[in-house]
Amino acid sequence: MRAYDSLKRRGDFARVTRRGKRHAGSYLTCFVAEGRRRTRVGVTVGSAVGGAVVRNRLRRRIKAVLDRYPLGAPPWRDVVFIARPGAGELGFEALVAEIARVFRPAAA
Predict the structure, then answer these.
(1) How far apart are the first and last CA of the chain?
(2) Number of helices and strands (H, E) in the chain?
(3) What is the pTM of this model?
(4) How far is CA 7 from the centre of its chain?
(5) Burial per residue of 82-105, b for 16 or more beta-carbon CB atoms within 10 angstroms, e otherwise
(6) Residue 86 carries which DSSP code?
(7) Which of 17, 58, 88, 92 has the most CB atoms lying inside 10 A of its own CB?
(8) For every one of its 108 residues, what pLDDT tens digit does the chain have, with 9 covering 90 and above?
(9) φ, ψ dihedrals at 63, nearest 5°
């Protein structure tokens, strides 16, 4: 069982990116906002990152990192990760480091 639920609605993504605290790294941007339930996470990977295969692989890798290394976010938080160009070429360990680098300041 995952330590978080998924953000699914466009309005939820928009609310988090509009009202949330933002921190950008080289390959990911993280937004953290107050939520309504337990922690929810959304991942956005746009076409600038690469083709469909690259985008879907990156989305699955980000979710795998979050499953393996829980964020430790306080409850009632919504988190959105937005991938930037070049993120598709990151290895797994580099992706772990990038997620930690952008999440910690945004969640503080």
Answers:
(1) 26
(2) 3, 5
(3) 0.90
(4) 10
(5) bbbeebbebeeeebbebbebbbee
(6) T
(7) 58
(8) 577 889 999 999 999 999 999 999 999 999 999 987 788 999 999 999 999 999 999 999 999 998 888 777 677 889 999 999 999 999 999 999 999 999 887 666
(9) -65, -35
Q: List the alpha helices (DSSP H) in the chain.
A: 10-19, 52-68, 92-107
Residues 6+ apart with CB under 8 A from 85: 48, 49
Sort strands 28-34 and 77-83 into parallel, antiparallel or unpaired.
antiparallel
C-alpha R_g of the chain? 13
Question: Into how many domains does the chain fold?
Answer: 1
> Which residues form the domain of 82?
5-107
For position 83, which CATH number holds? 3.30.230.10
